[in-house]
Specification:
It contains 6 helices and no strands. It is an all-alpha fold.
């Protein structure tokens, strides 16, 4: 199995966020290997549109498909999930930093600041 070299960081993560990050990582691995969605779909016994939905994070990834994809892509579970959690943690930290900076903005930027803080809070 290939190691991706990402560090694990503890974080809280939503199911939707995890699906999206895992989907992006699986797409990245698929493209790096030169596999088409059709090839992966045939391997899994599903439609190419289902593979697309997995990669977009709009459908839950069943464990049976995850096992098959991890084996096909030659990536360890640890590395796949470490990457996903680290990515989400980095995103949360960036949003927290942005919120802190926005809260210190002058009143002329109140509307923009309020909108960005709202977006940040939705991402939590």
């Amino acid at each position: 199995m290939k190691s991706l070299g990402f560090a694990l960081e503890a974080t809280s993560i939503t199911k939707k966020g995890m699906n999206k990050i895992l989907g992006q990582k699986l797409k990245f691995q698929r493209e790096n290997l030169g596999f088409s969605q059709r090839f992966v779909a045939e391997f899994l016994g599903v439609s190419p549109s289902f593979v697309s939905k997995i990669e977009l994070g709009v459908t839950d990834l069943r464990v049976s498909f995850l096992i098959q994809m991890v084996n096909l892509y030659d990536i360890s579970y640890d590395e796949l999930f470490k990457y996903a959690m680290t990515t989400q943690e980095n995103r949360i930290n960036a949003l927290k930093t942005a919120e802190t900076k926005l809260r210190s903005c002058k009143d002329e930027n109140t509307n923009l600041r309020a909108k960005l803080i709202s977006i940040y809070q939705e991402q939590k």
